[in-house]
Amino acid sequence: MISNQEKKIKDIIDKINYHNDLYYNKDNPEISDAEYDLLISEFKKIQKNIPNLKDADNPLMNIGGRSSDEFTKFNHPTRMLSLDNAMTNEDIENFIKKIIRFLSLKDTNIPFSIEPKIDGLSVNLVYEDGQLKVAATRGDGLNGEIITNNVFTIKEIPQKLRVKFPPKKLEIRGEIFITKKDFLDLNERSKNQFANPRNAAAGSLRQLDVKITASRPLKFIAHGFGIYEEGKKTYYDQMKELKTWGIPISPYLKVANGIDDLIKNYNYINDKRSEIPYDIDGLVYKVNDTLYQSRLGTVGKTPRWAIAHKFASETARTSIKKIDIQIGRTGSVTPVARLESINIGGVLVSNATLHNFEEIEKKRHKRR
Question: Which of 103, 135, 181, 185 would bridge 151 by S-S if both were Cys, CB 3.0 to 4.6 A apart?
Fold first, then answer.
């Protein structure tokens, strides 16, 4: 007989696996990132009471999705990791305390790199002697799909690094995405084929017909690296060097010291979120010192030295031009606000349904 607790655990694991499959394998999510994050947060709370949960049953131990049989498999030279999420300032404080404790440091204001977390498709670029040899999707973190010919069509990704003496072997990790404006243009041409920019990017990249990929406005920004024995002492300096080699990096990349500086930058980017030309769902903080990163290592699929500070569901400010009244078939009255059009998450919003007086009155009485 299965207990209520066991049923609850099974239900939430099934939900997470279901939404992971839609997001990673089918490029067709049904819920927002914020709703998914709440689901993960709920599972983490339950997980504390089930220490014997097998790794195979734990959805947090699996990264990304499975590799498609339509593409050749690729074994990543180093595992592609997945970040833990922080939803509050307190989560960030705890993240920093664990790092300080693990490294036995006295100074709590250690430097962190900051960059927006782009909502796109993660890829691994493998360069040998400066030449791009393999491009692959993340897959499950260990094995991905080879998409080299498709990536060759993306002008921003150099097939040869602009450096006289390139490293023997280098893995560059980054995000392939479509800007909000390009998404709207693409959807207009494609008769609203895609739900959001992330789906459009994934659907465009994982094409057997390279000509389709070449016709799509794909962009790339690097956010890390795997194999690289001759790297710089800090993540920030290494990314800046990659930029001189022709690799696009985030224009918002910077370094912060301590919790106050991190939160200040988080609030600033969150306020500017609607102005950024591509979808982001948070900020990524990484211990800037690469030696510290090595010492901190990973726990399963997750680095101890990095975390994603997630945003709440995206909001934006606009103006109401006028309010129309719609009469339903049953005689119900619904006010509709006609808005100054604004782009939210790749969707152009120009109308908003408002509560009618009857609904407002119901809510007012409920609060009493």
Answer: 135
Residue 240 to residues 125, 162, 294, 311, Cα–Cα distance (Å):
17, 13, 20, 26
Q: Is residue 181 part of a domain?
A: yes
Report the DSSP beta bridge partners of residue 327. 333
Four-residue CA torsion sign, 357, 363, 365, 367 = negative
- Segments forming the whole domain that contains residue 116: 73-310
CB 194: neighbour CB atoms within 10 A?
20
Distance between CA atoms of residues 101 and 96, nearest Å: 9
- The reply to whether 117 and 164 lie within a common domain is yes
Residue 154 belongs to a domain:
yes
- Residue 67 pLDDT > 50: no
Query: Are 201 and 239 within one domain?
Result: yes
The three-class DSSP label of residue 53 is coil
Euclidean distance between CA atoms 131 and 158, whole angstroms = 9
Q: Tell the burial category of 39 from Cβ atoms under 10 Å away from its Cβ (0-12, 13-18, 19+).
A: middle
Is the separation of the CB atoms in 74 and 223 below 8 Å? no
H/E stretch holding 343 reads: strand 333-344
Q: Is 219 marked active-site?
A: no
User: Active-site residue among 117, 180, 219, 301?
Assistant: 117
Q: For residues 265 and 275, what is the distance between their CA atoms, to the nearest angstrom?
A: 15
Instruction: Give the CATH number for residue 332.
Output: 2.40.50.140
Give 195's pLDDT tier (boundaries 50, 70, 90): confident
Nearest-angstrom CA–CA distance, 267 and 261: 10
The structure's pTM equals 0.73
Helix axes 33-47, 4-20, angle to 10 degrees: 150
Question: Do 359 and 223 fall into the same domain?
Answer: no
